[in-house]
């Protein structure tokens, strides 16, 4: 093959191939030289008085693969001399850094592949030492995180009708938590702050004045009092909406509590049947398969109390799905609460107390139908990142890695 075609495949305009040194089963070695004869002086920036004064040999540089083979370039270290400044210097290449053994294009490919993957997998794919991939990845993460965060914040500030999502996830279940701030409309994660207490949230607000510059129309969160108090202080005009997923969890919890109380009073065979199939009580009826519906009917026939609580749970799902506006939703919510009060079980009463306390935030869902569903999916991605990186101790790198993990698919390169 003519070297001119290989030059086009290299995508390095400043050099050209002068010799194909060798080609093996998995490697290609090429000798290259600069297209230009001289280079401008770094001191006076003049190229007219620069002359060549030999070479210091060459170095081997890894480049992007060609023909499915690892490609190595023999890059000459050409000595130059500026007659005007009387300064000697070495040829500076734009496609590879000084004393580097990998081209910028190769490093970009390795780091891009390492995002969302493990270092070991990326090293295997590129046939490169894992320590080298780890070094490239660690060097690229802060820069990539800063670039993506700048885009995300700019997009949030320019957004009309901004919708924020606030939710926490566990670093160590029951001990340490982080709180994420998400742009639900833009599909990005804006920031990550340590802790979830009101004091932690206020400290973040003080240290990051850019957060106050946002103008959200809606903020979606769970029923944690610290979140609602913090948001009401920062954005008093925003609509605070209780996340549907978390609110529905209180109803499911009440249903399962009733199931446990009923289960203890049943005969052994019925008790075993109910315990083995208790998960069928949670999903919505129309989402179940025919076989699952038959088993669920069998479970509900075991206890009238369990059947009435399950119908109460189904009515709550229907309230979310079928209420066309706020006025009708308010009226139907009152009817649903009355249905639960007629049941009279302590678990249902406790759930209704929570619903009454947060009635306005729950009904606000029908003012602007947003949930934290995408945030929950993002939490799964964060957990996968934590498992891959073994809970790295460097907080800055940990935070930057999570922001890249959550934003790299959404924002442009």
Our measurement of the CA-to-CA distance between the termini, rounded to an integer number of angstroms, reads 34 Å
Give the quaternary arrangement of the chains.
Answer: single chain
Overall geometry: elongated
Computed CA radius of gyration, to the nearest angstrom: 31 Å
Q: Which regions have little confidence, pLDDT < 50, spanning 5+ residues?
A: none
Structural class: alpha/beta
Order of helices and strands: HEEEEEHHHEEEHEHEHHHHHHHHH
- Helical region count? 15
Tell me, rounded to a whole number, the average pLDDT: 89
Largest sheet: 5 strands, mixed
Count every beta strand, where a strand is a DSSP E run of 2 or more residues. 10
In percent, how much strand structure appears in the residues?
15-25%
Helix content range: 40-55%
Element layout with pairings:
Layout: H1 3-10, E1 15-23, E2 27-34, E3 50-66, E4 69-82, E5 87-90, H2 104-114, H3 119-126, H4 130-158, E6 162-172, E7 176-183, E8 188-194, H5 198-207, E9 216-221, H6 225-234, E10 239-242, H7 244-263, H8 268-276, H9 290-300, H10 304-322, H11 326-343, H12 346-357, H13 359-363, H14 373-388, H15 395-407
Structural description of this entry:
This protein has 15 helices and ten strands. It is α/β, with parallel strands linked by helices and 413 residues long. Among the domains are: 3-101, no CATH class; 244-366. Strand 6 and strand 7 form a beta hairpin. Helix 2 (104-114) crosses helix 4 (130-158). The mean pLDDT is 89.
